[in-house]
Specification:
mainly alpha, 83% helix, elongated, single chain, 0% strand
Amino acid sequence: MGRAVSAVRRVWMDRFVRSRRQDRGMTTSEYAVGTIAACAFAAVLYKVVTSGPVLSAMQSLVKDALDAKF
């Protein structure tokens, strides 16, 4: 019985070690997808920040801050 338990334990440990080795980082394709997603997010953010309402709100915020009386 002891050998059977030892063999089962060894199989489970081998599977655990193999599964931990397989996930060591991103692959090249994952880097590519991540880079494309980051660029797309940056483009959307740029369009939002340079839009008329956001630009005027930022300008009024800066103007109010510079015109503040102490």
